Amino acid sequence: MPNSIIEISQKAIKNNITYIKSLLNDQTTMSCVLKGNAYGHGISVMVPALQKVGIHHFSVFNSLEARQVFNNAKGEFTIMVMGDISDEDAHWMIENHIEFYTFNLQRIQNMLEIAKTKNTPLNIHLEIETGMNRTGFNKSDWQELIHIIKNNRKYINVKGICTHYAGAESVSNYVRVKLQRNIFKKAIKYFKNEGIQPERIHSSCSAAILAFPEDNFDMVRIGILHYGLWPSRETFISHMTKHNLEYSPLKPILSWTSYIMDIKHVNKGEYIGYGNSYLAENNMTIASVPIGYGYGYSRSLSNQGRVIVNNNRFSVIGIVNMNMLLIDITADQNVAINDNVILIGKQGDHEITVSSFGNMTDQLNYEVLSRIDKDIPRILK
């Protein structure tokens, strides 16, 4: 028996994809972002689940994730690597027509050398630096980049031109993102005037399709939204208000369940767990759950986390250990060893959300999810 199980809801995935598609033009391709082990949901589970609802374009950060998608996808599909490519994977990517971002001259030149030895063209996306100041071609490199492409037409397919916005989830970044949008549009025009015609143009992440729908272009890169979560509380409130919605149209697709490993009684006046952070002010009954920060349950939830057992909410007490946490079950003497413990998810009238984790630990939804241990079994329901 595993110490916990993560369940992924196929019904919720379908709901979310359907809603996101309703926000897009029929001609706009949706690429689902699966970096960070599919935001902690599990690439091996998410790929077939997404293909069931008509998604066949997948974005990942590195070549290792590209291999994982490749090994789990069926039929026709496209993989796009937005970041790291290991030397060991470069040949494999070219052989299997994996698309990838190129954001400096060294990468395109190195990959071009391999492509020529294999007589197989590269499938590249030109990432443009527009103000994120992370990765992307600066304007000073554009002419040399164009020169390389024109002189190697046989070996280069320009699949896309793209950029990434520096914080579309907050109005505080509006001026900066507006400048980026203008720079990107100028770059598109520049490359087209030079005879470089990308198959796709893309700049929008989850936050951007909500904030700047007019800039969805040919493709959008959807991350947190298709997992049923919002990029920020600000985007959630703005979207709900704009569309006059009473309830969130998105459904979280992940639930995380463990179990009661042991139960014991603690006398009034005794400390519980490591150190002296929690003192029993009354006689108490406590239960141990075999989950801790080693599995992604943050130590910051010590003395403030909540779980659900038998349709009742219980408090985490004491310091969260690497492999264990303790909960106060004094109020319900019917709790028994092996009872299910909901860490994230819903049971009866109670729910523990990913957002509540974030609020208590000062982490983003993205952080909470991506830190969940990869070895915990993921099951599609």
Report what the structure shows.
This protein is of the alpha/beta class. The protein folds into 2 domains: 11-242, TIM Barrel; 254-352, Lyase, Ornithine Decarboxylase, Chain A, domain 1 (Beta Barrel), CATH 2.40.37.10. The protein has 12 helices and 18 strands. The chain has an 8-stranded parallel β-barrel with strand order 2-3-4-5-6-7-8-9. Strands 17-16-10-1-18 form a 5-stranded mixed sheet. The model has no long low-confidence stretch (mean pLDDT 95).
Beta-strand segment tally: 18
Helical coverage, percent range: 25-40%
What is the succession of H and E elements?
EHEHHEHEHEHEHEHEHEHEEEEEEEEHHE
CATH fold assignment of the largest domain: TIM Barrel
Q: How would a crystallographer describe the biggest sheet?
A: 8 strands, parallel, barrel
Instruction: Output the strand order for the largest sheet.
Output: 2-3-4-5-6-7-8-9
Overall number of structural domains:
2
Residue stretches low in confidence (pLDDT < 50, at least 5 long) are none
**So, CATH architecture of the largest domain?**
Alpha-Beta Barrel
Shape: elongated
Structural class: alpha/beta
Radius of gyration: 24 Å
Mean pLDDT: 95
CATH class category name of the largest domain: Alpha Beta
The number of distinct helices, counting runs of at least 4 residues, comes to 12
| Beta-strand percentage range | 15-25%
